[in-house]
Write a structure and sequence with these properties.
48% helix, mainly alpha, single chain, two-stranded antiparallel ribbon, 79 residues
């Protein structure tokens, strides 16, 4: 293809949406950062988890908020 044609057509492209997914990484486990996936972890009581999520107002798309959740989950798994 002619380089001049490429140069002239470079602004006619489209932006592609970027999809990001957040995960919690624990020793031996990688868990998708979603309420359902976290509540399905063995050793985590669903009622205690629900109370913790409500009390700490966990935002599933905020990495700083997920750090608090990660500390909670890792402490429950180490009990």
């Amino acid at each position: 293809m002619n380089h001049m044609e490429l140069k002239n057509a470079k602004d006619s492209g489209e932006l592609l949406p970027l999809t990001t997914k957040l995960y919690l990484v624990l020793p031996g486990k990688v868990i998708y950062a979603a309420k359902k996936d976290v509540s399905d972890i063995e050793g985590i009581d669903k009622k205690e988890l629900a109370a913790f999520l409500k009390e700490n107002k966990i935002k599933w798309k905020d990495p700083q908020s997920l750090l608090v959740l990660l500390d909670y989950v890792s402490s429950k798994l180490n009990e």
